[in-house]
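Researcher: Go.
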Amino acid sequence: MPNSTKPLTNTEVKQAKPLKKEYNLADGNGLYLRVKPNGTKLWLFNYFKPFTNKRSNISMGMYPNLSLGKARDLKQEYQSLLTDNIDPREYRIEQEARGQRAHANTFEVVYGNWLKTKEGTWSNSYRAALTSAMQLHILPGLGSFPIYKLNAPDTIKLLEPLADRKAWETVRKLCRWTNEVMVFAVNTGAVDANRLLGIGKAFQPPKIVNRPTIKPEELPKFLNDLEGAGSDITVKCQIRWLLHTLARPGEGAGTRWDEIDPQKKLWSLSPERMKKRRAHVVPLTDQMIEILEIMRPISQHRTYVFPSRIHPREPINKESANMAIKRMGYKGKLVAHGLRSLSSTILNEAEFPQDIIEAALAHMDQNAIRGIYNRAEYLEQRRAMMCWWSDHIEQAATGNLSLSAGGKNSRAIG
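Model: Structure:
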């Protein structure tokens, strides 16, 4: 039915005067201007609700903030919704709620929710490194922003100071972690798309730099230097422990007494303690037991085998070994993690099977299917190899490297 109501003019709307009672001026097709006794003018849209055909009003906004032309445009949007059987009031409530959620979903909030999903999947050291870097470099700039407002140019600009310092590896990690948060946001409905995808391409890739280590023939001198170093006995024992067990510095520093089984002669590390999030077992050799016996009167009443000197209830800092090695004159030549490279080189030269060496180093098998079948991790073969390795270290300390390759002269541990 054609609209018989004469449309309002801008002048009529502007000059509409208040009366003792509120009244409506019709513009046609459900659009009204309600004039209240206090002079307030409010736009209303009167319509039939979908399915029920009950009449309903929806407030559109105040005049003059909402002009006659804009009120007609909004009415047209509402009529389009009704054509699709969508109630304009319910639609607006839903949009307002969505907008509130969008503003409440700041990057920091979504980042916090993402962290919760990672509980138990990272080592403590990895989680600490990640959260520290994000809190230092990302959250101050992006944390308070609604996640849907984030964009690549602003994020790249935030990371440029790090790139200027050539901290390429830090930039790479921050780009990856930030993108993981954004993927989580997309998957949980906090945002429609990841607008930070590919921000890492804006920076130079990090150069692969191997951790410094010494040559196999330098092991005797290193052991001699360690023996004569003025470091604390706990630090010396920790370095020897890292060398014998092939453990990563963080894993070795956090060694707990309840992880040691003296009867089975095993050191068992839980998944949360490991970089690859998989439980790891180290067969204990006589030399490793000797290190534990040295530490027993010092720390057996504590949780950690190698306690912090300042905070005895906490483990020694994983950087303590690096600092001690540096003071021994090995700055730029060797770091604690480089002891793993040294051991790998010597064990490979001794022609131990690579699978056994990789298992001892707690490396993941690159062949995922084969890795599933190798979960036993060659414990007995590794026990023989670790005995050979500890004997090799002991012989190196005396300058008499007479052990044969492949561990033929190694001692068995029962």
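Model: DSSP finds 17 helices and seven strands in the chain.
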